[in-house]
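User: Working on a comparison across species. This one is Magnesium transporter CorA family protein from Chelativorans intermedius. Can you predict its structure so I can line it up against the others?
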Amino acid sequence: MIQVYCIEDDHLRQVDLQPTDSLPDNALWIDLLNPTPEEDQAVEGWTGAAIPTTEDMVEIEESSRFYTEGGVKYLTVPLLHAVGKEQRRIAPVSFILTGRRLVTVRYSEPKAIALYAGRACKPGSGLLAPGSGGLSVMLGIVEAATDRLADILEGVTEEIETASQAIFHRQGADRPMSTKEFRRLLTRIGGQGTFLSKVRESLSGISRLLAYVRAAVESGESRRESRVWIKSLERDMQSLENYVDFLSNKTTFLLDTIVGLISVEQNAIIKIFSVAAVGLMPPTLIASIYGMNFHFMPELDETWGYPAALLAMVVSAILPLFYFRRKGWL
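Assistant: Here's the predicted structure for Magnesium transporter CorA family protein from Chelativorans intermedius:
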């Protein structure tokens, strides 16, 4: 699908074009979502830039993600996108700067791009100025992605805090956690740790993109506002990266805490069985002695023999338990 945005004064206007149509002169941003081969060829004809394929976009080498060819800059970054109600993944998005125009190629639907497009199409939004180029649109999308990541991290913080409360401030702390509770907490915290690694990957890709663009801007004759904007975005990315590192460390701490609690609970269970085994050893010994089939055992002929054996077994079981309690082992 091709979405073309033309600049009018200080905002964008979406124009519906077909691959066979001509590109308007004031077209500033061409957005390709799951493009067909015909749409790729049409955009290549309009801009003179080669449209990367999916295989090109998933290359992990930095030289394949950021490069200039024929005066056209190709930049690919991984952005988060939702694939379900509670599931997010990372997918590459390519930014192609050709002249004053921007071409975006994506096979996913990051919410940041839709948010930016909706805001940029409103007059007086302050996102664009008359005469803005594709670089301004790209930086605006990056800023929207940064704001989106910050909002997502707020949700992650709340989730981690909820898990922390469940671990350290449980109601009825005398009752040990059940296996179901341990499994639920491990799954929740582990899922957040995995998600934070995706956020970290996205932040790293955006930071590399900004560094590449900053070098290109400083060597060119771009506006001073673009340089200031890029530096501001880099500071925001640095603060988010530091915050993600903090959350990752907290997640690791909580996982280690849960594993430690599991070990404590297991040791407590094993201790109970060990104490029970030791406490039952003296009664078992007495029962074994009087269970021997010797012909001469005087106590067997006495009326008090049976109750005396029972009393001896009870006392021999209580005394070790009392000793363990005095030592603090129970």
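For your comparison, note: The helical segments are 37-47, 54-57, 62-65, 111-120, 134-168, 179-219, 224-290, 305-327.

User: Helpful, thanks.
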